[in-house]
Each structure stands twice: as C-alpha cells, then as structure tokens.
Design a protein that fits this description.
Elements (H helix, E strand, L loop, with lengths): L2 H5 L11 H12 L5 E6 L5 H7 L7 E4 L15 H5 L5 E4 L3 E4 L5 H5 E4 L2 E4 L1 H4 L3 E5 L7 H13 L1 E4 L2 E4 L2 E8 L7 H4 L4 E5 L5 H16 L1 H7 L1 H17 L7 H10 L7 H18 L7 H12 L5
Bound molecules: zinc ion.
C-alpha cells in the first residue's frame, strides 16, 4: 500500500460502534502469533476501513535498512538482497500492511527475477506485518491455499530465491457476495461477524465523520490524535508484555472445556484461544489470562468452527 494512503487512513478510534471488530483487530495487533483474522458480514460495516486504521496503531519494527521484505536483525537467514549487502544497518520501520488483490498472480505474490536481479513479491513484503485480503470470497481457492501455505512455512520461494514471509492474514468478506469454503473459513484463527449499524443516531454520526474525513483527512486525523495515541500506546505496551505472558493450568483446563465439543479441531482451537486470551490480557496490561479474557475472545475463536 502506498505510504500516503497509510498516512491518511481513517482513524480506527473514529469508527462508530463495532466494538467486537475493534477488539479482534487490536488482539491481532497486540499478538501477531494469532496468525489470522477474518472479518465477515454485510457491506458498509466498516470492515476494510477498520483494518486500514491499524496502520497508525501498529508499533514500528526493527528491520535492515532498505530491505524490501524488512528482514529483522538476528540469527535468521536474510533475503537475497540482504545476503548480498556489504553492510547491514538496523532501523525502526513501520510495520507493513500489504494489500493482496484478487488479480495478484503467483509472480506478484511470490516475487521474481527481473534481469537476473531478485525482486520481492507481495507476500515477502508483508513480512513482519499484515497481508490484507479484501473480499476474500472473490479470490480463487488455489491462491488462498497458497497464501496460507506460505504463511505456515514463513518463507516464500521464487525463481530459486527464498524470502522471509512471516505475516498475519487479515481478510474481509461481504456475505452477500458469495461463499467461502468451510475448510478455508476454519483456517482462520479469529473470525468476527459485523453488520451495518441500525441505530439512527449512530448512522448519522458515521455520515458526519465520513464527510468530515473526506473533506480534510489530515484535519480529521488530528482531531483523533489523542485517542489514536492511547490506542498506539496500549498496543505497544501489550507487545512489550507478550513475551512474559502465560496461562495457568486452571486457565488451560477452562479453555479445553470450552473447546471440548469440537472433536478434530479441539487442539488447534485451544491453541488459538490461548493466543487470543494472552493478546487480550496484554491489551489490558496483564501477563496472565483470566476467565473474563476467555469470555471476551470465545466467539472470535469458536463462532466459525463446526468441529
Ligand atoms: Zn532483507
């Protein structure tokens, strides 16, 4: 996504209502180990706007200067460009939020060689950040399975080059535009259902804010800078707490009970719930999960699983 669009995104804190949507996205922002989140529902519910709004909330990441896939410093195998670099300097960089479109072909996704020079694809460019799939039910199943496979491996190969590709998948889906196979829906760690607002006061407020944003995005953003700053600080603090966050044996048992009806999907549901609970706890300034966290995230983790 162009940096300009990033800069002028509609603030997440200015989104009227949609508390569940905001909570699910903040969990994915606080704990990228969650892996994926699907936002589905009716048109005009602010799904894509909310995801775009993450761009000004996400903490910066550490990456090699000038690297297209933001290779992190450390004992990892770097991308073909960093491998050839004479000197590697680490800088703070914005976390990427990369749009994957229905028309992105395999070469655009994985990367390619141009005049024998390695050229990173979209999945590599989402490394250390988020791959955004808007209207996922219009994508080909083959492309979606490829994206999930790359995410599982954490690397993407193209023309003999290996690029790091550790990213969170954030997808939207308008239910009226068609189905997504149950096996793909179940691959998402979190799923949140949203619908357009029905309260007349809230709808009027949305119209007012959207119009005000359209007329002067920068001015509108500056109006919400305090709320945005608070959200940014909350996510940054949650990321700082995450490495120390843990769950007690009693919490583990409680989650297993919650997921017990899922048969084959139970183990992965418990793992996903653990990550969601830890992310939710960290957002609340804690390094331990509680029953309240389990209640907060249960519908995101279990609502889309049939078992
Ligand atoms: Zn690199």
């Amino acid at each position: 996504m162009p940096a300009d669009e990033n800069k002028a995104a509609f603030p997440l804190s200015a989104l009227v209502g949609q508390q569940a949507l905001k909570r699910a996205l903040l969990i994915a922002a606080a704990n990228p180990s969650i892996g994926s989140a699907l936002v589905r529902g009716t048109r005009d519910a602010g799904k894509r706007t909310a995801i775009r709004g993450l761009s000004s909330i996400l903490p910066n990441i550490k990456a090699h200067r000038g690297c297209p896939v933001r290779c992190p410093p450390g004992p990892y195998k770097p991308c073909p460009i960093c491998s050839e670099a004479e000197k590697l300097e680490t800088v703070n960089a914005p976390a990427p939020l990369v749009d994957i479109s229905i028309t992105s072909d395999m070469g655009q996704l994985a990367g390619r060689r141009v005049d024998n020079e390695p050229f990173a694809g979209l999945l590599g460019r989402a490394n250390q950040g988020y791959a955004v799939l808007d209207r996922i039910n219009l994508f080909s199943e083959k492309t979606l399975r490829h994206i999930f496979e790359v995410q599982e491996k954490g690397v993407v190969e193209s023309d003999g080059d290996m690029w790091p590709a550790k990213f969170v998948i954030l997808a939207t889906m308008n239910d009226e535009e068609g189905e997504l196979s149950a096996s793909l829906v179940e691959r998402f760690a979190l799923c949140v259902r949203v619908s357009a607002l029905t309260d007349i006061e809230e709808r009027l407020e949305v119209i007012k804010r959207v119009e005000s944003y359209r007329l002067d995005p920068e001015r509108f953003r500056s109006h919400y800078e305090r709320e945005e700053g608070e959200m940014r600080a909350r996510v940054a603090e949650a990321r700082r707490l995450m490495p120390r966050a843990e769950l007690s044996a009693a919490m583990q048992k409680e989650m297993e009970r919650r997921c017990s009806g899922l048969r084959g999907l139970k183990d992965s549901a418990v793992l996903r719930m653990s990550q969601a609970v830890l992310g939710n706890a960290a957002l609340n300034g804690r390094i331990w999960g509680t029953s309240e966290d389990v209640r907060d995230v249960s519908s995101f983790v279990l609502g889309h699983l049939k078992g």
